[in-house]
Amino acid sequence: MTTQPDIVLETRDLTKAFGGFTAVDKVNLRIRRGAVHALIGPNGAGKTTCFHLLTKFIAADSGQILFNGRNITAARPHQVANLGIVRSFQISAIFPHLTIRENVRLALQRKQGWDYAILKPEAALATLDDRADELLAAVGLTEDPSTIGASLSYGRKRALEIATTLALEPSLLLLDEPMAGLGREDIARIAELIRTVSRDRTIIMVEHNIKVIADLCDTITVLRRGRVLAEGDYATISQNPEVVDAYLGGGHG
Q1: Alpha helices in the chain (DSSP H)
Q2: CA end-to-end span of the chain
Q3: N or C: which end of the chain has fewer CB within 10 A?
Q4: Is the pLDDT of residue 251 over 50?
Q5: Given this model, what pLDDT does residue 200 score?
Q6: Using one digit for the tens of pLDDT, what is the confidence trace for 158-179?
Q7: The domain spanning residue 9 has which CATH number?
Q8: Each residue of 106-146: pLDDT tens digit?
Q9: In whole angstroms, what separates CA 187 from the centre of its chain?
Q10: Three-class secondary structure of residue 148 per DSSP
C-alpha cells in the first residue's frame, strides 16, 4: 500500500506498551496535507503518547510512521525535526530570562545550523532580528522586542512559543493542548493564531476544548484506551453514540 500524495503523515498499526499497559494500540492515522487534525479522548486515551511516537521522543514497539511517503519509524528526534515536524508541549517552553526577540532568534539560529552561535559576533546575530520581529508580529506580540519572556502573561507566553516553532519553518506542526491554562480571551486569540498559521502548513493538535475543536478542525480522531474509536468531522463524531458516551457526554477528564 502506497501513501497518497495528499497524505502528509500516515501511521500503520502504531503500537506502544508500557509494561502490561498498551497506551497506543494499532493506531492508523492519515493526516491530509494542509488540514487541521485533532486527536481527542479522555485522559489516558493515548493522545500525548501518539505525539511522543510521531516526534520520536519514544520508540514504537511495532507499526510504521510515514512522512510524505518516507518511512521515518527508525528516525531520531533531530532527524524528524529537520524534516519539518515540530511540536509544542502542554507546558509553555520558553527561555524566561531572555527577551522575546532572543527567544525567537535562538530558534532562527537553530534553523541556520549555527551550533556555536554563542561564539558569533553580535553583529552576525543581529542579522536575524528583522525576521524575529516579523514572527513576533505574526503571532500578535506587539510588545517591545526587549521585553523579558518571564514578564508575559501565560497566554502571551503561548504565543511566543508558537513564534519560536514557526521560526523552524515546520511543514507539520504538532500542538499539545495549546489552550491548557488559558482564559477565554487568550483562547480566542490563540485559536485565531492557529487558524492563521494553518494556511501554510498542516497541524495536528491534542485539545480538550470542544468548541475550539469544532471551530478549527477539519478532521477529528477520537481515541479510547489507545485505540481509534471514531474519526470524521465534528458533525460526524458528535453524533456517534460511542463518542458521546466515551468523551463528549462524559466530561473531558
Answers
A1: 47-54, 77-83, 100-112, 122-126, 129-138, 154-167, 184-197, 210-216, 234-237, 241-243
A2: 37
A3: N
A4: no
A5: 87
A6: 899 999 988 888 999 999 989 9
A7: 3.40.50.300
A8: 888 876 665 544 555 566 677 889 999 999 998 989 899 99
A9: 16
A10: strand
Contacts of 197 (CB under 8 A, 6+ apart): 138, 162, 166, 173, 203
* 8 A C-beta contact, residue 45 and residue 224: yes
Cell of 90: 502542554
126 with 248, same domain? no
Same-domain check for residues 61 and 125: no
Does residue 106 sit in the same domain as residue 73?
A: no
- At residue 83's C-alpha, the angle toward residues 122 and 195, to 5°, is 85
User: Do residues 145 and 114 make contact, with C-beta atoms less than 8 angstroms apart?
Assistant: no
Of 121, 143, 169, which one is at a domain's C-terminal end?
169
**The pairing of beta strand 62-67 with beta strand 7-18:** antiparallel
Which of 120, 142, 169 terminates a domain? The answer is: 169
